[in-house]
Amino acid sequence: MRRIIRTIISLTVAFAANANADTFDNWKAYMAYGNITDIEPAGKMVYVLSSNSLFSYNSNDGSVTAYNKVFPLSDCTISKITWNSNIKKLAIAYDNGNIDLLDNNGKVENVAGYKDKTMTVDKTINNVVADGNLAYLCTAFGLVQVDMSGAYIRETFNMGKNVTNCAIKGNDIYIQTGEGIYKGNVNDNLVNPASWKKSYDDVDFSHANDISVTTDDGYTRYYTYDKTNKCYWTNQKDQKLQAYTITADGTKTVIKQDIIPDAPLYNVFGFMTVQNNKLYACNGGEWDSNIPAAIQVYDPNNEAWQFYDGEGIEENYNVKFNDILCLAVDPRDDSHVMAGNQYGILEFKDGIAINHYDRKNSLITPIANFSDRYQIITSMFYDSNANLWISNSSAENKRLIVYTADNKWTAPEKQFDASQAVNSKIMMDRSGRIWISSGRYGGNGVFCYSADLNNLYSYTNFTNEDGSAIGTMEFLRQVVEDKDGNIWVATSNGLLTLTPEYQANPALGFYQVKVPRNDGTNYADYLLSGANITSIAVDNANRKWVGTYNNGVYVVSSDNMVQEAHFKAEDSYLLSDKIQYITINPVSGRVYIGTDKGLCSVESNASQTFDSMDKDNVWAYPNPVKPDYTGLITVVGLSYNADVKITTTNGVLVAQGRSNGGSFKWDGKDLKGKRVASGVYMVNTATESGESGTVCKIAVIN
Question: What is the pLDDT of residues 593-649, one digit of tens each?
Fold first, then answer.
C-alpha cells in the first residue's frame, strides 16, 4: 500500500501518534468521464482520455474498465496518452509531470523522475510521441526521452524552446516550435542547445496514433481509425464512446455505441450531503454564473450515478441552470430535492425541475441595490419535521428564511445585518438552535438563533486557549456540532471550537485547543493553528475530519489530543491536497472527500451508533470465522463508546476495548496475541451509562 501516515503536522501542530491511522482503508475514487479528448486503439483494447481521466474498452469481451489513482495508476489529472505499438504499452502523462506506463494486462510502471526533478523551467508536457522503445515528451523547454521498455528517463534536452511536436527520421530528430522547425542528429551532443539547428526540411509531424477533430456534426468530435478492429472510434455528442465503419460509397454504420464507465460526469464536488445512503453533490463554493450546473447523485447500493439536467428550466422559469451552490434533500422523499444558486431555488422531482422560487413567489430577496440576478441561496437544510431552512445571503430583507412542510414561507423577526455575512452557511444543532457562519467576511463572527428564534446571539471573539486574540480571518466557511455538543468553525486561520460552557456566554467566544506535545517536555501547540480550513465533518466515533485549502485532510481524535491521520496526495490515495468539501455517510461511516481534481472516499471504520444494544441489532461478521480467514472480525450495531468484552462460554476474557462509533473490531486473538481455539465466543457490552448484557455470539472454526 502506498499510504504513509504522518505523525507530525508540519507548520501547524504536533500531535501524539496513534496506531488507529492504519484502520482507515478501502479507498475509492470516482473519476468523471464526461469529455472525451483522445482515443488510442491498442489491439484488443481501446484507451480513452476523458475529463483528464482514463478508461478502456475491451473489444473482445465488451468490458469497460475505469482507471484511477486508487487502482492501478499512480496519479490523477492526465494530460496526454500515447500507445506505443512496438512494446505494447500506453504512455500516460499527468499534469504534474508524472508518467505511468500501462500494458494491456493492467500492469503499471511508474516513471517519476521527470516529476521529481527540480527544474527552474516550465515542465508542461505539450505532447507525447512514441518511436521504437522510446516516448518523447514535448515540453515547454525542450524534449524528454523516456525509455518505455526499461521505464526510466533516458535523456533531457533543454534547448529553451516550447516544443509542441516532434518527428524522427533516421538519426534526425525534428522539433516543432513557435520559432519554426529545428533538427538535431543523435550522433551529436544534443544536450548542448547549440546542436539543434534551424531546419527548412519538409517534415511530416503526423503520427500513426494521432487523433483527428471535426465539428461537422454540430459538436467537437474526435475520431481515429483502428487497424485491428477495422473501424473508427469517436465520441458521441453525449461524450460516450462509439465505433462505426464507412463503406466505399460513404455509408456510415454504427457498430458499437454508448460506451462509458458508470461514473460522474463532472469532477465537481464543492458541496455534498448524504440521505438514505445516497450521496448528493453539486458545485458548491463561491457563486459564478459562468459555471455550468452539476447536480450528481450516487447510489452505492448499485454503484449508479444520476445526473440532473437543465431541460426546460430557462424556457419555463427564465433563469439559467448554472452554478448550484447547495442542495437539500426532502427527508420524506429523497427524489424531492431543492437546489440553491444565485437566481433563487430550483425544485426537482426525480431529477426534473418542477418549480422555481425567487422574490416573485417567496420571501427570497436580492442583494440590496442589486438586480434580481443576485437572489443568492448559499446554504439549505431540512429539519426532522421537513421544514426547509434557507440562507438568503446578503439579502436586502430576510437573510434566514423557512419554507415549512405545509408549503408556507416564514422568517424570524430578528435578522442579522446583510453586510455581516456573505456566502453564509447554516446548520441546526441537536437542541434546535440555528448557527450561521459569516462566510467571506469572517471577522463578523458566528451567529446563533435560540431554538424558539426569539434570540439572536453573536460570537465575535476568537482567541487561543491562553486568551490571546487570533489574527485576521478572511473566511468562516462552515459550522458543525460534534457528539459532545461542541461547535466547531472552519476558518481561513485555523480550527476553533465553542464548548457548551462558552456557548452560554457569547462574550467568551471561540478558542483554539491547546495540544500537549507528549515528547517529555511541557510544550504544547494549538490545534491546526493557521491552517486554511475549507471543511469539517464529524464521524460516528466523534473524530473530526478536517479538509484544508492546500494541505490535505487531517483526522483528529474524539478528545482532540491525537492526530489519527494526515492524508496528503503525495503519500496516500487522496486525489489532491486542495479539499473542497467533506461529508460522511452516517450509516456506513464512509467518508466522501471532494477535491479540485474529483471525488474519493475512505472507510472511517466508525459505523452508525445505536441508543440501545440487543440481539436484534448487534451482529458480527464474518460469522462463523472459518480456518482460512485471517482478517478482522467486526461487531456492528453498538452504541457510542460502548465497552466491549469478548469471553469464552466459561467467562474467560479473551479481548476487550471500546467501540469505534457503532462498531468494534477483533483480530480473533486472545490477550496474549494467540489465535483463539475453536469454539463459541460471547460479545458482552456495556453502554456509557452502565447497562450491560450479551448481545451476540461468534463461532470460530480452526
Answer: 999 999 999 999 888 888 888 888 888 999 999 999 999 999 999 998 899 999 999
* Residues 540 and 589: beta-carbon distance below 8 Å: yes
Structural domains counted in the chain: 3
Position 368 in a domain: yes
Same domain, 653 and 524: no
Residue 524 and residue 514: Cα distance in Å, rounded?
Answer: 6
The side-by-side arrangement of strands in the sheet containing 271-275 is 271-275, 278-282, 295-299, 304-308
Cell numbers linked to 104: 494491456
Helix (H, G, I), strand (E, B) or coil at 536: strand
Are 287 and 328 found together in one domain? yes
Q: Is residue 341 part of a domain?
A: yes
Query: DSSP labels for 563-602?
Result: EEEEE-TTTSS-S-S-EEEEEE-TTT-EEEEEETTEEEEE
CATH code at 197? 2.130.10.10
* 623 in the same domain as 594: no
Q: Are residues 425 and 276 in the same domain?
A: yes
- The stretches in the chain having pLDDT less than 70 are 1-23, 442-443
Predicted TM-score (pTM) of the model is 0.90
Domain end (from 157, 181, 210): 210
Q: Could you tell me the residue range of the domain that residue 174 belongs to?
A: 68-210
Cis peptide before 193 (omega within 30 of 0): no
Joined together, the cell numbers standing for residue 408 give 408556507
Q: Which is nearest to 231 in space by CA: 34, 46, 35?
A: 46
Instruction: Identify whether residues 367 and 448 lie together within a single domain.
Output: yes
CA-based nearest residue to 122, from 97, 102, 105: 97
Give 494-547 pLDDT, tens digit per residue. 999 999 999 999 999 999 999 888 777 888 889 999 999 999 999 999 999 999
The SS3 call for residue 488 is: strand
Please indicate, yes or no, whether residues 570 and 644 belong to a single structural domain of this protein: no
The helix or strand, by DSSP H or E, that contains position 503, with its residue range, turns out to be helix 500-503
Beta bridge partners of 66: 55
CA angle 138, 144, 146 (to 5 degrees): 115
Same domain as 552, residue 595: yes
Specify which residues 568 forms β-bridges with: none
Q: Which of 125, 121, 83 is nearest to 104 (CA)?
A: 83
In a domain, 49, yes or no: no
- Say if 239 falls within a structural domain: no
Q: Of 187, 210, 233, which one is at a domain's C-terminal end?
A: 210
Same domain flag for 545 and 629: no
Q: Which residue in 423, 450, 453 sits closest to 439, CA to CA?
A: 423
Q: Are 641 and 654 in contact (CB under 8 A)?
A: no
Query: How big is the CA angle at 374 (ends 372 and 376), to the nearest 5 degrees?
Result: 125
Print burial letters for 267-303: b (CB count within 10 Å at least 16), e (below 16): bbbbbbbbbeebbbbbbbbebeeebebbbbbbebeee
* Cα 576-45-167 angle, rounded to 5 deg: 80
* Cβ-proximal residues to 493 (8 Å cutoff; 6+ apart), any chain: 442, 470, 471, 472, 473, 474, 530, 531, 532
Q: For strand 553-556 and strand 563-567, is the pairing parallel, antiparallel, or unpaired? A: antiparallel
CA-based torsion, 632, 636, 642, 647: positive or negative: negative
